[in-house]
Design brief:
Elements (H helix, E strand, L loop, with lengths): L17 H10 L6 E2 L7 E3 L6 E4 L2 E6 L9 E6 L3 E4 L8 E9 L19 E8 L16 E9 L11 E3 L7 E9 L9 E2 L8 E9 L6 E15 L4 E10 L16 E5 L8 E12 L7 E12 L1 E5 L4 E10 L3
Antiparallel strand pairs: 1-4, 2-3, 3-6, 4-5, 7-8, 7-9, 9-10, 11-20, 12-19, 13-18, 14-17, 14-19, 14-20, 15-16, 15-18
Length: 330
Protein backbone atom coordinates (compact mmCIF):
# COMPACT_ATOMS: atom_id res chain seq x y z
CA UNK A 1 0.00 0.00 0.00
CA UNK A 2 1.58 3.31 -1.04
CA UNK A 3 -1.28 5.63 -0.10
CA UNK A 4 -0.35 7.82 2.85
CA UNK A 5 -1.97 6.33 5.95
CA UNK A 6 -3.77 9.49 7.03
CA UNK A 7 -5.29 11.95 4.52
CA UNK A 8 -4.65 15.56 5.42
CA UNK A 9 -7.71 16.88 7.33
CA UNK A 10 -7.91 14.01 9.82
CA UNK A 11 -6.74 15.19 13.23
CA UNK A 12 -4.03 12.82 14.39
CA UNK A 13 -0.68 12.76 16.11
CA UNK A 14 1.22 12.84 12.80
CA UNK A 15 2.25 16.32 11.66
CA UNK A 16 2.52 16.96 7.95
CA UNK A 17 5.38 18.85 6.39
CA UNK A 18 4.47 22.44 5.51
CA UNK A 19 5.25 21.70 1.84
CA UNK A 20 2.58 19.00 1.71
CA UNK A 21 0.03 21.34 3.26
CA UNK A 22 0.95 24.18 0.89
CA UNK A 23 0.65 21.97 -2.18
CA UNK A 24 -2.68 20.61 -0.98
CA UNK A 25 -4.10 24.08 -0.42
CA UNK A 26 -2.85 25.18 -3.83
CA UNK A 27 -4.73 22.35 -5.52
CA UNK A 28 -7.96 22.45 -3.58
CA UNK A 29 -9.75 25.42 -2.03
CA UNK A 30 -13.36 24.20 -2.06
CA UNK A 31 -15.25 20.91 -1.38
CA UNK A 32 -14.83 19.53 -4.90
CA UNK A 33 -13.60 16.10 -5.93
CA UNK A 34 -10.85 15.24 -8.34
CA UNK A 35 -7.13 14.86 -8.88
CA UNK A 36 -4.55 17.62 -8.64
CA UNK A 37 -2.88 17.27 -12.05
CA UNK A 38 -4.02 15.52 -15.27
CA UNK A 39 -1.81 12.46 -14.77
CA UNK A 40 -2.46 11.98 -11.04
CA UNK A 41 -3.79 8.54 -9.98
CA UNK A 42 -4.16 7.39 -13.58
CA UNK A 43 -5.25 3.74 -13.81
CA UNK A 44 -3.41 1.58 -16.36
CA UNK A 45 -2.78 -2.15 -16.96
CA UNK A 46 0.10 -3.80 -15.12
CA UNK A 47 3.21 -5.00 -16.92
CA UNK A 48 3.67 -7.88 -17.45
CA UNK A 49 -0.03 -8.30 -18.14
CA UNK A 50 -2.16 -9.80 -15.41
CA UNK A 51 -5.49 -9.59 -13.63
CA UNK A 52 -4.61 -6.30 -11.96
CA UNK A 53 -4.23 -2.59 -12.60
CA UNK A 54 -1.77 -0.02 -11.38
CA UNK A 55 -2.57 3.45 -10.02
CA UNK A 56 -0.09 6.26 -10.56
CA UNK A 57 1.03 8.55 -7.78
CA UNK A 58 -0.55 11.92 -7.15
CA UNK A 59 -2.95 13.91 -5.04
CA UNK A 60 -6.75 13.67 -4.87
CA UNK A 61 -9.47 15.68 -3.18
CA UNK A 62 -12.24 13.65 -1.57
CA UNK A 63 -15.26 15.68 -0.32
CA UNK A 64 -16.72 14.56 2.98
CA UNK A 65 -20.06 12.77 2.92
CA UNK A 66 -20.30 12.50 6.71
CA UNK A 67 -23.46 14.13 8.12
CA UNK A 68 -22.79 17.71 9.14
CA UNK A 69 -19.41 17.82 7.41
CA UNK A 70 -20.44 18.01 3.75
CA UNK A 71 -18.53 21.27 3.21
CA UNK A 72 -15.18 19.71 4.12
CA UNK A 73 -12.61 18.01 1.90
CA UNK A 74 -9.98 15.35 2.57
CA UNK A 75 -6.67 15.52 0.72
CA UNK A 76 -5.16 12.08 0.05
CA UNK A 77 -1.83 11.39 -1.58
CA UNK A 78 -0.55 8.32 -3.37
CA UNK A 79 3.22 8.49 -3.01
CA UNK A 80 4.08 5.78 -5.55
CA UNK A 81 2.59 3.39 -8.11
CA UNK A 82 0.14 1.02 -6.42
CA UNK A 83 -0.87 -2.37 -7.81
CA UNK A 84 -4.54 -3.27 -7.33
CA UNK A 85 -5.51 -6.93 -7.75
CA UNK A 86 -8.85 -7.83 -9.36
CA UNK A 87 -10.90 -10.97 -8.73
CA UNK A 88 -11.38 -13.56 -11.52
CA UNK A 89 -14.57 -13.18 -13.55
CA UNK A 90 -15.57 -16.77 -14.28
CA UNK A 91 -18.32 -17.48 -16.81
CA UNK A 92 -19.69 -13.92 -16.76
CA UNK A 93 -18.08 -10.56 -17.25
CA UNK A 94 -17.99 -7.92 -14.52
CA UNK A 95 -17.46 -4.21 -14.07
CA UNK A 96 -15.04 -3.11 -11.33
CA UNK A 97 -14.74 0.46 -10.07
CA UNK A 98 -11.33 1.64 -8.84
CA UNK A 99 -11.85 4.23 -6.12
CA UNK A 100 -10.13 6.20 -3.37
CA UNK A 101 -11.94 5.78 -0.05
CA UNK A 102 -11.54 7.75 3.18
CA UNK A 103 -12.27 6.05 6.52
CA UNK A 104 -12.30 8.69 9.24
CA UNK A 105 -12.63 7.24 12.78
CA UNK A 106 -13.92 10.60 14.06
CA UNK A 107 -17.16 10.29 12.09
CA UNK A 108 -17.47 6.62 11.26
CA UNK A 109 -16.03 3.27 12.17
CA UNK A 110 -13.23 1.35 10.52
CA UNK A 111 -12.11 -2.24 11.11
CA UNK A 112 -8.62 -0.97 11.86
CA UNK A 113 -9.13 1.20 14.93
CA UNK A 114 -7.85 4.73 15.31
CA UNK A 115 -4.06 4.49 15.51
CA UNK A 116 -2.75 6.69 12.65
CA UNK A 117 0.76 5.26 12.89
CA UNK A 118 -0.38 1.77 11.89
CA UNK A 119 -3.81 2.11 10.25
CA UNK A 120 -4.84 2.94 6.70
CA UNK A 121 -7.46 5.70 6.71
CA UNK A 122 -7.12 6.53 3.01
CA UNK A 123 -6.91 3.68 0.55
CA UNK A 124 -7.32 2.67 -3.08
CA UNK A 125 -9.81 -0.15 -3.35
CA UNK A 126 -12.12 -1.99 -5.76
CA UNK A 127 -15.91 -1.89 -5.80
CA UNK A 128 -17.34 -4.79 -7.76
CA UNK A 129 -20.38 -3.80 -9.79
CA UNK A 130 -22.07 -6.46 -11.95
CA UNK A 131 -24.27 -5.79 -15.00
CA UNK A 132 -27.16 -4.76 -12.73
CA UNK A 133 -25.05 -3.40 -9.90
CA UNK A 134 -23.72 0.00 -8.97
CA UNK A 135 -23.54 2.79 -11.50
CA UNK A 136 -20.32 4.81 -11.34
CA UNK A 137 -22.19 7.73 -9.78
CA UNK A 138 -23.89 5.70 -7.05
CA UNK A 139 -20.57 4.76 -5.50
CA UNK A 140 -20.23 8.38 -4.37
CA UNK A 141 -23.17 7.76 -2.02
CA UNK A 142 -21.30 5.14 -0.01
CA UNK A 143 -21.01 5.50 3.75
CA UNK A 144 -17.41 6.67 3.56
CA UNK A 145 -16.22 9.54 1.32
CA UNK A 146 -15.22 8.08 -2.04
CA UNK A 147 -13.89 9.35 -5.37
CA UNK A 148 -13.96 7.41 -8.63
CA UNK A 149 -10.74 6.80 -10.54
CA UNK A 150 -11.68 4.33 -13.27
CA UNK A 151 -14.11 1.70 -14.49
CA UNK A 152 -12.68 -1.66 -15.58
CA UNK A 153 -14.96 -3.76 -17.81
CA UNK A 154 -13.77 -7.35 -17.51
CA UNK A 155 -14.95 -10.02 -19.99
CA UNK A 156 -15.82 -13.58 -19.01
CA UNK A 157 -12.85 -15.76 -18.01
CA UNK A 158 -10.55 -12.75 -18.08
CA UNK A 159 -6.86 -13.56 -17.66
CA UNK A 160 -5.37 -10.08 -18.08
CA UNK A 161 -6.49 -6.46 -18.10
CA UNK A 162 -5.87 -4.44 -21.26
CA UNK A 163 -6.01 -0.70 -21.82
CA UNK A 164 -9.22 -1.06 -23.83
CA UNK A 165 -10.99 -2.40 -20.72
CA UNK A 166 -10.22 0.71 -18.64
CA UNK A 167 -12.35 3.87 -18.78
CA UNK A 168 -11.00 6.79 -16.78
CA UNK A 169 -13.51 8.48 -14.48
CA UNK A 170 -11.09 11.01 -13.04
CA UNK A 171 -11.48 14.75 -13.30
CA UNK A 172 -9.17 17.60 -12.36
CA UNK A 173 -10.45 19.20 -9.17
CA UNK A 174 -9.19 22.67 -9.92
CA UNK A 175 -9.72 23.73 -13.55
CA UNK A 176 -6.36 24.22 -15.27
CA UNK A 177 -6.87 26.82 -17.99
CA UNK A 178 -4.63 29.33 -19.73
CA UNK A 179 -5.84 31.41 -22.65
CA UNK A 180 -4.71 34.25 -24.88
CA UNK A 181 -5.57 36.12 -28.08
CA UNK A 182 -3.15 37.14 -30.84
CA UNK A 183 -3.91 39.71 -33.56
CA UNK A 184 -3.36 38.40 -37.09
CA UNK A 185 -2.68 40.64 -40.11
CA UNK A 186 -1.90 38.66 -43.28
CA UNK A 187 0.14 40.30 -46.04
CA UNK A 188 0.18 40.22 -49.82
CA UNK A 189 -1.46 42.24 -52.55
CA UNK A 190 -5.12 41.95 -53.54
CA UNK A 191 -4.10 39.77 -56.49
CA UNK A 192 -1.82 37.43 -54.57
CA UNK A 193 -1.80 37.05 -50.79
CA UNK A 194 -1.91 33.54 -49.34
CA UNK A 195 -4.29 31.36 -51.33
CA UNK A 196 -6.12 28.23 -50.19
CA UNK A 197 -4.26 25.15 -51.41
CA UNK A 198 -5.58 23.55 -54.61
CA UNK A 199 -7.73 20.44 -54.43
CA UNK A 200 -5.73 17.27 -53.92
CA UNK A 201 -2.85 18.89 -52.05
CA UNK A 202 -2.13 19.44 -48.36
CA UNK A 203 -4.04 22.32 -46.71
CA UNK A 204 -2.17 25.65 -46.71
CA UNK A 205 -1.63 27.64 -43.53
CA UNK A 206 -3.37 31.02 -43.83
CA UNK A 207 -2.43 32.51 -40.47
CA UNK A 208 -0.39 31.26 -37.53
CA UNK A 209 1.40 32.17 -34.30
CA UNK A 210 3.86 30.45 -31.95
CA UNK A 211 2.68 29.52 -28.44
CA UNK A 212 4.29 27.67 -25.54
CA UNK A 213 2.36 24.72 -24.15
CA UNK A 214 2.10 24.79 -20.33
CA UNK A 215 3.65 21.82 -18.57
CA UNK A 216 0.23 20.61 -17.40
CA UNK A 217 -1.77 21.13 -20.64
CA UNK A 218 -3.36 18.16 -22.37
CA UNK A 219 -5.60 19.90 -24.94
CA UNK A 220 -5.85 23.27 -26.68
CA UNK A 221 -8.97 24.87 -28.13
CA UNK A 222 -7.88 26.95 -31.13
CA UNK A 223 -10.33 29.57 -32.44
CA UNK A 224 -9.51 31.64 -35.53
CA UNK A 225 -11.68 34.45 -36.91
CA UNK A 226 -10.57 36.21 -40.08
CA UNK A 227 -12.49 38.97 -41.86
CA UNK A 228 -11.84 40.34 -45.32
CA UNK A 229 -11.17 36.89 -46.79
CA UNK A 230 -11.19 37.17 -50.61
CA UNK A 231 -13.60 34.90 -52.49
CA UNK A 232 -13.46 34.56 -56.27
CA UNK A 233 -16.10 32.36 -57.90
CA UNK A 234 -15.21 31.25 -61.42
CA UNK A 235 -17.85 28.61 -62.13
CA UNK A 236 -20.72 26.78 -60.47
CA UNK A 237 -20.53 26.94 -56.68
CA UNK A 238 -17.31 27.74 -54.86
CA UNK A 239 -16.60 25.23 -52.09
CA UNK A 240 -13.57 25.22 -49.81
CA UNK A 241 -12.58 23.92 -46.39
CA UNK A 242 -10.84 25.37 -43.35
CA UNK A 243 -9.23 23.68 -40.34
CA UNK A 244 -7.41 24.83 -37.23
CA UNK A 245 -4.20 23.17 -36.15
CA UNK A 246 -1.61 22.81 -33.40
CA UNK A 247 1.72 21.39 -34.49
CA UNK A 248 5.42 21.05 -33.80
CA UNK A 249 5.99 20.58 -37.54
CA UNK A 250 4.96 23.73 -39.44
CA UNK A 251 6.45 22.21 -42.61
CA UNK A 252 6.53 25.46 -44.62
CA UNK A 253 2.85 26.09 -43.96
CA UNK A 254 1.67 22.54 -44.62
CA UNK A 255 1.25 20.99 -41.12
CA UNK A 256 0.45 17.26 -40.90
CA UNK A 257 -3.24 16.41 -41.19
CA UNK A 258 -3.21 14.50 -37.88
CA UNK A 259 -2.29 17.80 -36.18
CA UNK A 260 -5.37 19.50 -37.62
CA UNK A 261 -9.04 19.64 -36.65
CA UNK A 262 -12.04 18.40 -38.57
CA UNK A 263 -12.86 20.25 -41.79
CA UNK A 264 -15.27 23.23 -41.87
CA UNK A 265 -16.93 24.18 -45.16
CA UNK A 266 -17.11 27.68 -46.67
CA UNK A 267 -19.03 28.42 -49.89
CA UNK A 268 -19.89 31.17 -52.38
CA UNK A 269 -22.98 30.78 -54.53
CA UNK A 270 -23.68 34.27 -55.88
CA UNK A 271 -21.97 34.89 -59.23
CA UNK A 272 -18.89 37.08 -58.91
CA UNK A 273 -15.95 36.69 -61.25
CA UNK A 274 -13.61 39.05 -59.43
CA UNK A 275 -12.00 39.48 -56.03
CA UNK A 276 -14.43 42.14 -54.76
CA UNK A 277 -16.43 39.72 -52.60
CA UNK A 278 -15.03 39.46 -49.09
CA UNK A 279 -16.34 37.37 -46.21
CA UNK A 280 -15.61 36.59 -42.58
CA UNK A 281 -14.42 33.04 -41.93
CA UNK A 282 -14.28 31.43 -38.49
CA UNK A 283 -13.17 27.98 -37.38
CA UNK A 284 -12.42 26.27 -34.07
CA UNK A 285 -11.28 22.88 -32.83
CA UNK A 286 -10.01 21.05 -29.76
CA UNK A 287 -6.58 19.49 -30.29
CA UNK A 288 -4.30 17.17 -28.32
CA UNK A 289 -1.13 18.93 -27.11
CA UNK A 290 -0.13 16.54 -24.30
CA UNK A 291 2.99 15.36 -26.16
CA UNK A 292 4.30 18.94 -26.46
CA UNK A 293 4.13 20.03 -22.82
CA UNK A 294 6.74 22.69 -22.12
CA UNK A 295 7.53 23.18 -25.82
CA UNK A 296 6.82 25.99 -28.29
CA UNK A 297 4.46 24.95 -31.09
CA UNK A 298 2.56 26.69 -33.91
CA UNK A 299 -1.21 27.15 -34.02
CA UNK A 300 -3.32 28.61 -36.80
CA UNK A 301 -5.78 27.93 -39.61
CA UNK A 302 -5.37 26.18 -42.97
CA UNK A 303 -7.42 26.34 -46.16
CA UNK A 304 -8.04 23.89 -49.01
CA UNK A 305 -10.03 24.44 -52.20
CA UNK A 306 -12.59 21.96 -53.48
CA UNK A 307 -14.37 23.48 -56.50
CA UNK A 308 -15.42 26.69 -58.22
CA UNK A 309 -12.67 29.26 -57.85
CA UNK A 310 -10.09 30.65 -55.43
CA UNK A 311 -10.00 31.93 -51.84
CA UNK A 312 -7.18 33.94 -50.25
CA UNK A 313 -6.15 36.23 -47.39
CA UNK A 314 -4.14 39.42 -48.08
CA UNK A 315 -3.23 42.82 -46.64
CA UNK A 316 -6.92 43.73 -46.40
CA UNK A 317 -7.65 40.69 -44.22
CA UNK A 318 -7.40 40.82 -40.44
CA UNK A 319 -8.46 38.67 -37.53
CA UNK A 320 -7.56 36.98 -34.28
CA UNK A 321 -6.15 33.65 -33.12
CA UNK A 322 -7.43 32.61 -29.70
CA UNK A 323 -6.00 29.68 -27.76
CA UNK A 324 -7.23 28.03 -24.58
CA UNK A 325 -4.97 25.43 -22.99
CA UNK A 326 -6.73 22.96 -20.69
CA UNK A 327 -5.40 20.41 -18.24
CA UNK A 328 -7.81 17.47 -18.25
CA UNK A 329 -7.48 14.05 -16.64
CA UNK A 330 -5.89 11.69 -19.15
Amino acid sequence: MVMQNVPWAIEASEVYHSGDVARSLAFFSAPVHGVGLPGDLKVTPVSPAGLAVQVAGGTVAVPSTYAGHESETYIAKNVGVERVELAPTGAQGRRDLIVVEIRDPQYGTTPEGDDPTRRQYSRITVVQAGPAGLTPESVLKRANPTVLLAEVNLPANCQAVTGAMIRSLRRVARPLVESGVVQSNPSGSSTSGTKFAPKGSAPQSLTHTPVTVPGWATTCIVEVTMNGVRFGLTSGVLVAGVRVYATDNFNNGRPPLDHQSENGIVTQEAASNNWNLRQTVAMSGKLDVSKWQGRTITIGMTGLMSTGGEVAVDYQSAGTIKYTFQGEAI
